[in-house]
Every structure is written in C-alpha cells, then in structure tokens.
Design a protein that fits this description.
This protein has 444 residues and is α/β, with parallel strands linked by helices. It has a domain of 251 residues: FAD/NAD(P)-binding domain (3-Layer(bba) Sandwich). The protein is built from 13 helices and 19 strands. Strands 5-13-14-15-12-16-19 form a seven-stranded mixed β-sheet. It has a six-stranded mixed β-sheet with strand order 7-2-1-11-18-17, with helices on both faces. Helix 1 packs parallel to helix 5. It is globular and about 65 Å long. The mean pLDDT is 93. Its cofactor is FAD. Pfam families: FAD_binding_3. This is FAD-binding domain-containing protein. Belongs to the paxM FAD-dependent monooxygenase family.
Length: 444
C-alpha cells in the first residue's frame, strides 16, 4: 500500500474526532468522519474547560484568536461548603497563566466543535458524514471496513475510535479479538473497563445575579460537589454525586431521576445569591449521566485504535478529559505521519508499531491524570475524613496551591505538539514550552 492510499476512518465527530480530522488534514492524510448524530456540530452537552495542554493544539493551527472569541478565561475558583461557608479561593487557573502564558478557558461543546469544523476546508467537510451509526467492523490483511446501520460501508487503512466512553468501536475491537483464537487473553479488553463511582447532573442556564463571566465556583461537601463555570450568556454547573456502591454496569437515568436529584440538592449554593434550584428553574438544557472512570488496557487491536474517552475516562473535576483526548490525537497523528512519510508499502507491522508507540507515550500520563481527577472528586465530596481534612485545611493554602502547580508545570510544558506543523503564536510564561523536535513537511 502506498502512502498516497493511506486512509483513516474516524468514528465520532465530537471535539476529539474533529481534532483528529484537523491533525490528519495538516499531515496530508486522507480521512472520513462517521458521526451517529444528525449533524456534526450540535448544540448539546455540557461545557468543557480547555487547559494549556489542549490550547497548545489550537495555537498550532492558528485558532487561538477565534477560540478566544467564543470562550471565557478562567481565574480564581471560589469555594463554598453546602451551607455557603467560604472555604478559601483556589488559584490553580491563575498559576496556569503565570507558568504557561495562557489561562484555561471555558467553552460550550457546540462552540468548540464549530471552531474545529470551520478550520477545515469544504473538501474536508464533504468527507464528514452524520447519521452514520456503526453496525459492525470487518478487517482484511490490507484494509478495515465500517458497516453502518443505513447500509453504507466505508473502507480505509485504519479506524480511529473517537466515539466516547460507551465506544462501539471499542466493543467491536474486543469482539474481533475474541473471535481470533490466536489472540492472547492479555490483548482482550474487559467488556466493562470503567468503574462508575459518581453520577453527574449538568445544567446550562442563563448567566444571572452575582455570577459574572469568567467566574469559577465550587461547592464542596459530603457526597456531592458542584462546579460552576460562568460564560457571557450562559453558565453551566456540573454536580457530582457519589453513588451508594460503585458499579461497572452502564447506568441510565430519566426525567424522574433528574427531578429526584434536584429535590435532594436544590437548596445548595452556587454563589452567594444563586442556588441549584435557581439554575434548574431557568435551565436551557440539562442531563443526568454516569461518570465512568478508568483506563482501557489495550488501545489498539489490528487496524483499530482508540483515542479520548474511548480509551480512558476521567471524572470532570480537573477538566482534563477532553484535553487528554486532544493530546492523544497529537501523539497518534505524529506516529501515523512517520509511517506515511516513509513512502512505499505500509504494512501491518508498521501500523502495529505506530499504535504501540502511541500508547506507550500516553499510557502512564493518562493513568496519573485519571487518578488525579478521581482524587479531586473524592476530596470535593469528602469521601473520607482524610479527604475532608485536606479539602478544608490544606487545599485553601496559597502556598500549597503554588507548590502543586510548580510540580505540574514541567509536564505541562512538555505537552506533545504536532511535529509537522511549525509552532507560532503560543503565549509564553515562566516555564518555556518544550518545542517539537524534528519538524518535517508531510505532503498530501
């Protein structure tokens, strides 16, 4: 197979899938996107926080200015307990700006996907197909084919599963592994790889009262924590409630569950003047979902590879989930670009090696990130006496906050960047970004 015939099928057209489309486009690698929803860009879902690690990718594509126009910068985090007592501000976002020259920003899923979609030319838009629910996958020694429920099929060199925590691609990958008698048991992923300890009610509502654009508030206490991110026109809260028992089974919730949730927690404060009930009564959108956590053991099998929530799922407390998915794409795209750059035949050996290097470079970082997010949620929900003590008496210390952020800064500065795109326009802070090595031009 020549490099010019290398084609990627991306399943999932959310932020991570569109990140993959942009990265592959920059590398000159052909792709299609298959999205199960009616449109690629939809107005649904909770807000996202992009950290410096995710913003580095947007900077490489020259998208920071347009992204800044549809997002709000985040500064100090005001922390309250369940009865409104002040727990002390957290300055983690401020330290991000000091260390890396760029502050985390809150953005709607719709706005982020629009920015990533608009960054691609019309020729790429023509290769994005909504209403494509995957039914099955078939592979041969030289190709992979995705069969959709509407009877259409798409064939390429590899498949990237960017279809979220309940990934159908991950499930199909496992089925293919089980169907092959020569597959070692260690290469077969668990059927339910994630554990759910919390569920989350998210609410989007018009920005009101003493909530000001750019505000980030948190409400902490036994069994439930709230994060509030305030935008220019709308605000979003995420409420994280610990379940009586963790479960590996998928949980589904309906309107009655949502109403019962509000009846129990509606009086909790989001700010000095706004409660959960106020937000819910004026809601624009809401949803009650389970918060899976964990890291899949094997991120690839044959011609299939996973990115983002399909490979690892974080609780939202640190805002790192989407950001890590974007970095997954960067590392994977670099490895694929090396394979395509070689020219000539691209065999299974090359693909397997690229997938292996991708997981090797990302796995440890993701495991630590997932662990950190879980600990942050446990601390905010006072899971134990120790967590409660740390939340009440340690995390509020500005010295402690600075210590943790200084420890994290070198790793953030080393966030992988696309090796085939020159970096320009990335703000600098106290800790210089580590530049990509061996930049190369990858031609279509």
């Amino acid at each position: 197979m020549s490099s010019s015939s290398f084609k990627v099928i991306i399943v999932g057209g959310g932020p991570v899938g569109l990140t993959a489309a942009n990265a592959l486009h920059q590398a000159g690698i052909d792709f299609v996107i298959l999205e199960s929803r009616p449109n690629i860009v939809i107005d649904a879902g909770s807000n996202l926080v992009l950290l410096p690690m995710g913003l580095r990718f947007l900077a490489q594509l020259g998208l920071l200015e347009v992204f800044n126009n549809v997002s709000s910068p985040l500064g100090k985090i005001k922390r309250f307990d369940h009865v409104g007592n002040n727990l002390g501000d957290a300055n983690f976002f401020i330290h991000h700006k000091e260390n890396h020259g760029i502050a985390p920003r809150v953005v709607s899923r719709h706005a982020l996907t629009q920015v990533l979609y608009d960054a691609l030319p019309a020729s790429a838009h023509a290769r994005m197909h909504p209403n494509k629910k995957v039914r099955s996958i078939a592979t041969t020694p030289s190709s992979a084919t995705v069969h959709c429920a509407d009877g259409t099929s798409y064939t390429g060199t590899i498949i990237i599963g960017a279809d979220g925590a309940h990934s159908l691609i991950r499930s199909q990958m496992r089925s293919l592994a089980l169907a092959n008698p020569s597959t070692p048991p260690s290469l077969v992923n668990d059927d339910h790889p994630f554990l759910t300890t919390y569920r989350s009610l998210w609410i989007r509502f018009p920005t009101q009262s003493d909530l000001l654009p750019g505000d980030a508030n948190e409400t902490h206490g036994a069994d439930l924590a709230i994060q509030t991110f305030v935008g220019e026109e709308t605000s979003v809260i995420g409420m994280y409630e610990r379940l009586p028992q963790p479960t590996a089974e998928r949980l589904r919730f309906g309107p009655k569950d949502e109403e019962e949730f509000i009846s129990r927690w509606g009086k909790l404060p989001l700010s000095e003047k706004v409660t959960v009930q106020d937000a819910y009564d004026s809601k624009v959108q809401s949803g009650l979902v389970s918060l899976e956590e964990g890291v899949v053991s094997n991120w690839s099998y044959g011609r299939i590879v996973l990115v983002g929530d399909a490979a690892h799922k974080f609780t939202p407390s640190t805002g790192a989930g989407c950001n890590n998915g974007m970095v997954d794409v960067v590392v994977l795209a670099n490895e694929l670009a090396r394979v395509v750059k070689q020219g000539g035949e691209t065999g299974m050996e090359d693909i397997t090696a690229a997938f292996g290097k991708y997981q090797e470079k990302r796995f440890e970082t993701v495991v630590e990130g997932c662990k950190g997010a879980g600990q942050a949620t446990a601390m905010a929900t006072w899971k134990s006496g120790v967590f409660k003590f740390v939340d009440l008496h340690v995390i509020g210390s500005k010295r402690v906050q600075r210590f943790f952020m200084e420890r994290a800064a070198p790793g953030i500065a080393a966030t992988p960047a696309l090796e085939f795109v020159e970096e320009a326009g990335l703000p600098e802070g106290r800790v210089p970004w580590l530049k990509s090595q061996g930049l190369r031009a990858i031609k279509a």
